[in-house]
Amino acid sequence: MPKLQSIRTGILNISSKGIQVFPRIKTPEIPPSYEIAQNKISTGVEGMDEMFEGGIPKGTATLIAGGAGTGKTGTSNRQSHQGACVN
Predict the structure, then answer these.
(1) What's the CA gap between 14 and 29, in Å, rounded?
(2) Of the candidates 8, 36, 33, the residue with the CA atom closest to the CA atom of residue 22
């Protein structure tokens, strides 16, 4: 008889021992509260810091989007450098 290989997905596990079903993780009805940090980190670009009212709030994730040649990579590199120097 051929050996049954274990197959595992995020939902169930099928093996020679049988099928094991995992419950879905439910989203909490009331999301946890979140407070934005008051201290900010400079983007390294004066005009952008003005747009962010002094920089990007520390400890947050910020999406930088735009077309080709708009400065996304340069801004990301400056921000990473700034964060490495401050910390």
Answers:
(1) 32
(2) 8
Token pair belonging to 6: 């274990």
- Residues with Cβ within 8 Å of residue 75, at least 6 apart in sequence: 43, 44, 45, 48, 64
Name the 3-class secondary structure at 80: helix
Structure tokens at 86: 């401050």
Task: Map out the domains of the chain as residue ranges.
Answer: 40-86
Q: Per-residue pLDDT for the chain (87 aa), expressed as one digit of tens each?
A: 445 455 555 677 788 888 888 777 777 777 777 776 788 888 777 888 898 888 888 878 888 888 999 888 888 887 788 777 765
